[in-house]
Every structure is written in structure tokens, then in C-alpha cells.
Amino acid sequence: MISKKMTKELNEQLNKEFYSAYLYLSMSAYCNRNDFSGSANWFLLQYQEEQEHATRIYNYLIGQDAKVVLQEIAKPPKKFGSLLETYEDSLAHEQDMTRNFNELSDYALKEKDHATYNLLQWFVNEQVEEEATVSEIISKLKMVGGDGYGLLMIDSELGKRSVIDSDNSQ
């Protein structure tokens, strides 16, 4: 059984995961409106992945017989700037999420809550992958600069991303 404080912290992280999903759905819509269908697909799959992350935390709380408290989800931005700026916003968000999971992991260790710590390590590892993936996209976008053909090539490549079973891919 996890402590009330850890339950509260995990419920807050659950809300952050739902916000992440909402943010990526907004980014997907923005890319669609700006004719970057490949990136729209990429962000839509990010949205789905974030929902899976929220579900992982939700199921953990339920399995620990902890109280799940759903909170209001903040409204995400509607505009993100250039395609590069959109991915830079994504990276900044992922870096914030990494900090959150690191802090939660530290707290779990402080409480000697090894079960929760193990759950959080899955997320810590996932964040390493998330940041690396978005950083690589940003590097490619910076390489092509404002070249329309280059942007279309990268966008087309991003559109090839498909659904991956997150339980088996990490």
C-alpha cells in the first residue's frame, strides 16, 4: 500500500499525463491546419502514447487500492509557430516531464516505496527515449532550415510512424 502523499503525487502526475495527451492532440490539429500531415500523424500517436501512460498510472493506483482523483485538465495552446518551434515546444514539455518523474522517483526512494519506484523507473527510461526522439527531429529540422522541400521530406518521414505497443517496445 502506498502512502497518502505518494498517492497525491501520482494523482497529480496522472493529470500531467492527461495534459500531455491533450497538448499533443492540439499539436496534431495545428500541424493538420498547416498542411504538415506527417507531423499531425506523429503528434496524434504521441497523444495516444500519453493516454497509455496515464492509464499505466491509473492502473497502478487501482492495483495499490489507492484513491484515484481526477482533476481538471488545463487547456493547451492552439498555436505553436513554425514546425521547428512546435517540436521545440514538445521537447521542452518532455524535459519538464522528465524532471517530474525524477522528482517522483527520488520521493519514492525517500519513502522506501520500492514498488512505486519500479513503476517510475519505467517512465524514467521512457523519457530518455522521448527526449532523444524529439531532439533528433529538431536536429533534422534545423539542418533544412526554411527549405520547403526539406521540410516536406522530413514531414513525410514523420508520417510513417505507426502505433507501437509500448509494453513491448521499451
Largest sheet: none
- What do the pLDDT scores average to? 95
Shape, please? elongated
Helix and strand composition category: mainly alpha
Q: What is the overall number of helices?
A: 6
Q: In angstroms, what separates the terminal alpha carbons?
A: 26 Å
Elements, N to C (H/E) = HHHHHH
- Number of strand segments: 0
Stretches where pLDDT is under 50 for at least 5 consecutive residues are 165-170
Query: In angstroms, what is the radius of gyration?
Result: 17 Å
Portion of residues in beta strands equals under 5%
Fraction of residues in helices? over 70%
Walk me through this protein's architecture.
Helix content is 77%, strand content 0%. It is built from 6 helices and no strands. The protein has helices spanning 4-33, 37-63, 83-110, 114-144, 148-158, 166-169. Helix 2 packs parallel to helix 5 (148-158), helix 3 (83-110) runs antiparallel to helix 4 and helix 4 packs antiparallel against helix 5. The model is unreliable at 165-170 (pLDDT under 50).
Write the layout of secondary structure elements.
Layout: H1 4-33, H2 37-63, H3 83-110, H4 114-144, H5 148-158, H6 166-169
Helix pairs in contact: 1-2, 1-3, 2-5, 3-4, 4-5
